[in-house]
Amino acid sequence: MKKTIFTTIISLLFWVVNHAQEIKFGKVSMEELTQTAHPVEPDAEAAILYRSYNTTFNYSSNSGFTLITKIFQRIKIYNKKGMDLANQDIYLYFDNKDKEKTQGIRGYTFNLDNGKITKSKLENENIFKEERFNKYYNKTSIAPPNVLEGSVVDIEYEITSPFLGNIPELIFQEEIPVDYAEAEITAPEYFIYKQHLRGQFPLTFNEKKGMRMIQITEKVSGDAGVFNGVQQTKTYSDKVDLNETTYTIAGQNISSMKEEAFVNNIHNYRTAIKFEITGTKYPREPFKMLAQTWTDVAKSIYEISSFGAELAKTNYFEEDLQALINGQEDPTKKAILIFSHVKSKINWDGTFGVLTDKGVTKAYKDGSGNAAEINLMLTAMFRQAGLKANPVLVSTRKNGIPIFPTRDGFNYVIAAIEMQEGIVLFDATEKYAVPNILPERAINWMGRLVREDGTSIEVSLLPKTPSKQVAYFSAQLNEDGSAAGKVRIQNYDQYAFNFRERIKNLNKDLYLERLENKTFNSDIEVSNYQMQNESDLSKPVIENFEFKKEDQCEIIGGKIYVSPLLFSGMIENPLKLEKREYPIEFSFPTTNQYLITIKIPEGYQIESVPESLALQLPEDIGSYQYNITAKANQIQVKLTSEIKSPLISAQGYEMIKNYYQQIVQKNAEKIVLTKI
Fold it and tell me: Can you list the positions of beta strands (E) in 260-369?
């Protein structure tokens, strides 16, 4: 048996390598079209049969070197769920001086029609260009025509870039299997690159030296003399040997990396290679170092006028600040007053960035600004009030975790005050934020605090203390299997912030509809809903309501079966993968408590209740305490679940998965009632 499996795998490897060598744009095989499921991952919705990147440097006497990257991808669609994966988005960087462009976009969709191969050409109407998709990128979207179950789609295009440090990230792993992917990067001797590998899947990497000839043209004024009083220019042209290094990277049978619960950004962990330009060495010029440390990056950002100079401005708020903190000496109370003032005065416009756009003075006057304007303003006011405050550079979750130091690694900024009890973090972009409670977008491992003298230190963005949620249930069971009662839910800290953010743009009716249909494990009918402390950020948000549920219990053979947690608690394991190659990332440490009192119907007695259970994860990562007591006609349940470490390595996956499975199994057990 083992020999058969080994032989099958080896045969598949040879097929993939040989097939990759045969793949030509616009020519598909009958074997590719008739394939109904992926041979290694039969449940895959689609698969990338082939992907290639080819990057070269073109030289022009007028514009110098230009980066040219040609990308070709062939994808197989197995079912309807995979059809959207045939679409592609291309993001093109631009700045004030220049921009990246696409050219040579072409594609075909291949299908089988009565056993014959049909071909649908990609037309201009299938290509959509969006200028200024955001502050830094234009976007080109490709939607191939006639994509069906079983289709094979070829797409090819080129990206031309004047930004020589912008070799596209070479992505080898996706949410679907990749049969074969390869990249060839040919760089002139003048540019020195370093490769950074992300992910766990092994790739082959080769490097070889080569040479080509380029034509260099130079215009020199004065060498042609003077004619009619006008100095003439002479053009010199010469052919020069250019040494180059070609990097070849390849991977085959790359397993899919599927996203499941408790991961902030799956892109951080999929196998990819990024080329970093570390220096330049032009003829007759010394080597110029371009590589930076995170300290260098932080310092360079601070020195940009739309960061450091904006932070130094104070005239626009001095009068307001003086009135705000007049007579207040306590540092903590000063900080709260200033924080509340900025939150109430300035509305966040929804844009990120570490640099100001219109500037702090205009943002203060207009009452709106980007994240940098709001939080640099906040930092400046803290400093003016005598607090030891500094900005903290952050990469949001969506921006990912950068794999080498670069200015693009940061796309957000918050404020920090160094106090006796430690560093306290502030983000005034959100009205419901409180000290040390950040929006989840900003809770992304580490930030970098930058001081006025240019020095910087790493600071953890992860909350240190658990946020708490306590739920009280009191229920009366009825003989017909229905139940009615009251619920009280108290949300503290991060739970309170997230709740306030979630409901701020919802009307009450819509929220109650979601509460009845989506919040719990099954539908309930809610009445007499009340909320406390929605706007008092110093207190927990409290919800009180009454409920009715028609089918709370099962009645089988004259016995009543009911869940001790009623319609709450975990009923499905959120971790389902056989193996996970990336860490478990809880957003923040948590403590969840359920305190439940159940009264049984008259004429019934308690036959049995589930046993209590105590689970303890190693190294004090977390715990689960389930206690149930029965007395006369009443049952009391107390459940406490804690996660103390918000980050657990991939090696702990099986442990956490089993932990949740035990909880699900315990929560599935029933109380049994019988007639007296």
Answer: 272-280, 288-289, 347-348, 368-369
Residues 531 and 508: beta-carbon distance below 8 Å: no
Query: Distance (Å, rounded) from C-alpha 372 to C-alpha 428?
Result: 10
Non-local CB neighbours of 268 within 8 Å, separated by 6+ positions: 198, 400, 401, 582
Q: Which of 594, 595, 592 is nearest to 644 (CA)?
A: 592
| CA-based max dimension of the chain | 122
DSSP 8-state code for residue 352: -
Q: Give the number of other CB atoms < 10 A from CB of residue 217.
A: 11
Q: Per residue in 327-342, pLDDT tens?
A: 999 999 999 999 999 9
Task: Measure CA 24 to chain center.
Answer: 35
Cα(59)–Cα(215) distance, integer angstroms: 8
Residue 554 tokens read as 């099962």
The predicted structure's pLDDT at residue 220: 59
Structure tokens at 248: 């070849």
CA-to-CA distance for 174 and 271, rounded, in angstroms? 8
- The tokens 């009135």 sit on which residue? 323
Asked if the model's pLDDT at residue 13 lies above 90, the reply is no
310: left (phi over 0), alpha (psi -120 to 50) or beta: alpha
pLDDT of 132 reads: 83
Q: What domains does the chain contain, in order, with CATH numbers?
A: 2-288 (2.60.40.3140), 294-460 (3.10.620.30), 467-675 (2.60.120.1130)
Query: Is the pLDDT reported for residue 291 higher than 90?
Result: no
- What is 60-117 written as a DSSP string? ETTTEEEEEEEEEEEEEE-SGGGGGGG-EEEEEEB-SS-B-EEEEEEEEEEEEETTEE
How would residue 219 be classed by pLDDT, with cut points 50, 70 and 90? low
386 half-sphere exposure, CB direction, 13 A CA radius: 10
| ∠ CA 632-634-635, rounded to 5° | 120
Asked if residue 122 lies in contact with residue 108, where contact means CB atoms within 8 angstroms, the answer is yes
Whole-number pLDDT of residue 10: 43
612: DSSP letter: P
The reported pTM is 0.88
Q: Which two tokens stand for residue 170?
A: 């070479």
- H helix runs in 385-526, sequence order: 493-503, 508-517
Interacting residues of 149 by C-beta distance below 8 A, sequence separation 6+: 77, 78, 79, 80, 83
